Amino acid sequence: MSAAELAVSARLQQISVIIIGGGASGVLMAAHLLRSQSASFRLTLVERSEAIAEGVAYSTDLPEHVLNVSVKGMSALADDRSHFERWLGAFSNNKINPASYVARSLYGLYLADLLSHLRAIDDGKRFHTVTDEALDVTETPTGVEVHLGNGTSLIGHIAILATGHEARAAQTSAGSSAAGDAQLPILIVGTGLSMVDTFLAAARRKNHPPVIAISRHGLLPHAHTTAPPIAIDAADIPFGTKLSFLMRWLRVLIAELADQGIDWRSVIDGMRPHCQDIWRSWTPETKRRFLRHARPWWSIHRHRLAPPIHERLTKAVSNGHLAVQAATIVDVADSDGALAVTLRGRKTGEETLLKVARIEDCTGLHFDVTQSRQALLQNLVSRGAVRGDPLAIGLDVTERCAAIDLDGKPSKRLFAIGPITRGTFLEIEGIPNIRDQCAAVAATLSARFAKVEHSTTAES
User: For the whole prediction, is pTM greater than 0.85?
Assistant: First the structure.
């Protein structure tokens, strides 16, 4: 779209939005914008891969990789919470249990089907995709320009970064002979949900090697149950207090309700609507303390496993196929085609030497955008168009998801959604949170452009 065409579309109240990233976040954002009743959006979704709607989480084809949220919580649409359940019913022709945990590959098919419906809106005139890599986004007098890898550009009023999780560096591996030696264990750094995925993939092999998982605290995720969340009033939550005060309050609440027969999961899930507000109410120092000291315990209670997966993990620990240690790596060296790893135990401080076939990093998905390997973020950061958040765990954005530049000024035209915004929202990894975030951004943009006679700058 040229600048002249952009101005015409503005006067006709057709707002051109370019979404960069075709994973789950990008598809959810497109869905909520196109469902707007108060503004007309024309969308272009840019994704360098031809496999749109999958992303990292839903591109797996392993049946063991299941959703960590039950069917009833995984609708893509914030205003239609049974949408995924109905889709599953039509897809399988079987009665669907809303409390079930289905394969993530199935959810990828669901998002792909949603994408096909988006493409059909207004006979495909309001939504189309571009297979290419977005290298940069610059603001223009009439909106934004997205520079593509093929040397061309896309012009729009708004750009939204939906780049998802940063791709991890390649695993550290020994020689090919050691990597294929079933007698040598695999060492996984991290004991959260990513470790579970990696272990399940390794366990598919016949006579698979033993797996050793380490983390600072050696904590494994708990299992989901059918316990429903309780309603917690915001007025009862100690926002803005010290971390220690909040944690004591939460422990007391859980203990009091346990005496009434209420499971702790009901309390943790009742906190979910307030988690982002609690995070935003804290000082930077309190946030750092949470990330350093409390997050491991919070994560294993908040981000839980499907019961069958948790049962399988428990059996793997009991039969020796999976060993979990609270330890850190002191040194790694090559040793006769293997890797010699020195570990230091957290409690004892003692060092032990271990030979492994390879090391896999499952320490988490947050990252410092100033160190990103994505050309798009590299260029945006180098120009000062965006900046990392103060905790270096994502991109700095406002509560309305507007990108903040190096001077601290929020953009009117560049937004970001999904895991890259964790510095502002923290709890923004799973579909329920991303879905609600996309709905909020769509509402913000709809209100901004609703029933307004636009100027050629489209900045109303």
Answer: yes
